[in-house]
């Protein structure tokens, strides 16, 4: 079975400079308000191709909202978000196709419960990309194999463990060859063993150069897989650093107290 093992320091993914690569997601002065509450306050963040950015912070910090603005599941009030260098489409078919090009893995409710795992993975490539059944299925089997659940292709989601369901959700996201995959607390509803399976799959994606934005409380994942850690609190990015710096010497008092609370 899959097990997530944080690599030795010598094997840690190079957290070096990716600034020469193009931005896949770029926030420029983004503000978002719910009623009286500023949920995102002047967010500036650039995620480059192949980068793994891990977002951490206390509950209510705005992490999920930040993720949801990227594919326009939430609109913004001020600023702009560029994806792959382009403004987000506003509506209609363009928005629908744009969303399909951004992978999203949530805490739960990721799969269509009345469709088999294979159908879940092939649905969007067939409906949105017009892929023929045979080639979409060939791709799906390859991806299910990669995430370790090929034998579950004809099962229904309810027949899978939580970890297997999340890995199916990852395969479904990958089937659309996404520019970026957003993970919003993908393991927080899982038991420890399932958590390790999903983290191992995410680690594999990170090593393959997948562009990933990951909201998680799994500090081991952040330490070993993040190129950068973004610490959010009260709607703002308080601190951005490479994981070594962030976990050994966080700059802000807010980050220090957060880290003390999760350790
Ligand atoms: P996090 O994911 O970091 O826990 P969220 O992005 O879910 O934070 O929420 C940030 C803040 O925005 C919270 O105070 C939350 O209550 C509020 N919020 C989130 N979604 C909505 C909504 N649809 N309507 C009103 N307030 C919301
Ligand atoms: Mg959240």
From TrEMBL:
Q: What membrane topology does the UniProt entry give?
A: Peripheral membrane protein
Asked if the keyword Membrane belongs to this entry, the reply reads: yes
GO CC, any one term: plasma membrane
Q: Where in the cell is it found?
A: Cell membrane
**Stretches assigned to the ABC transporter domain:** 25-259
Q: Which domain of life is it from?
A: Bacteria
The identity of this protein, by name, is Amino acid ABC transporter ATP-binding protein (PAAT family)
Q: What is the lineage of its organism?
A: Bacteria, Pseudomonadati, Pseudomonadota, Betaproteobacteria, Burkholderiales
């Amino acid at each position: 079975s899959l097990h997530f093992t944080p690599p030795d320091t010598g094997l840690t993914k190079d957290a070096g400079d990716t600034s020469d690569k193009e931005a896949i997601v770029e926030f420029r002065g983004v503000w978002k308000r719910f009623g009286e509450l500023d949920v995102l306050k002047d967010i500036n963040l650039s995620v480059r191709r192949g980068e793994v950015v891990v977002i951490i912070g206390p509950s209510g910090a705005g992490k999920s909202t930040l993720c949801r603005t990227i594919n326009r599941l939430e609109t913004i009030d001020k600023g702009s978000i560029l994806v792959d260098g382009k403004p987000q489409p506003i509506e209609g078919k363009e928005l629908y196709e744009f969303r399909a090009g951004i992978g999203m893995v949530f805490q739960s409710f990721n799969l269509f419960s009345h469709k088999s795992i294979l159908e879940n993975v092939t649905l969007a490539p067939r409906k949105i990309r017009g892929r023929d059944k045979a080639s979409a299925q060939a791709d799906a089997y390859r991806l299910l194999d990669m995430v370790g659940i090929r034998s579950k292709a004809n099962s229904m989601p309810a027949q899978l463990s939580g970890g297997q369901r999340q890995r199916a959700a990852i395969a479904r996201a990958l089937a659309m060859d996404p520019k970026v995959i957003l993970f919003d607390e993908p393991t927080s509803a899982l038991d420890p063993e399932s958590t390790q399976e999903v983290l191992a799959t995410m680690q594999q994606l990170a090593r393959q150069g997948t562009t990933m934005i990951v909201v998680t409380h799994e500090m081991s994942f952040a330490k070993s897989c993040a190129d950068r850690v973004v610490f959010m609190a009260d709607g703002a990015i308080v601190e951005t650093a490479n994981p070594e710096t962030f976990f050994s010497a966080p700059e802000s008092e807010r980050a220090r107290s957060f880290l003390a609370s999760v350790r």
